């Protein structure tokens, strides 16, 4: 499942550069995660890097975008193929 940034975000700017898929971008008020690009770092790391660096723990799983680990790996492979 993709991740989501909640309104507890303090716009500290640490999550965006950590995302290997460039799924995080600055929104109107807080940072946002594009669910089409979020693989929870599957294919890159063992843990979602944005969650690891977030100082306020405002990046939970997005219940509206539920995906299995296999689906996340397939998405990762599609993203990598498109970048090649």
TrEMBL record:
Gene3D superfamilies: 3.30.70.20. It comes from Reinekea thalattae. Keywords: 4Fe-4S, Electron transport, Iron, Iron-sulfur, Metal-binding, Repeat, Transport. Residues 1-29 form the 4Fe-4S ferredoxin-type domain. This is YfhL family 4Fe-4S dicluster ferredoxin. Signal peptide: none annotated. Pfam families: Fer4. It comes from the Bacteria. InterPro entries: 4Fe4S_Fe-S-bd, 4Fe4S_Fe_S_CS, PSI_iron-sulfur_center, YfhL-like. Transmembrane segments: none annotated. GO terms for molecular function: 4 iron, 4 sulfur cluster binding; metal ion binding. GO terms for cellular component: cytoplasm.
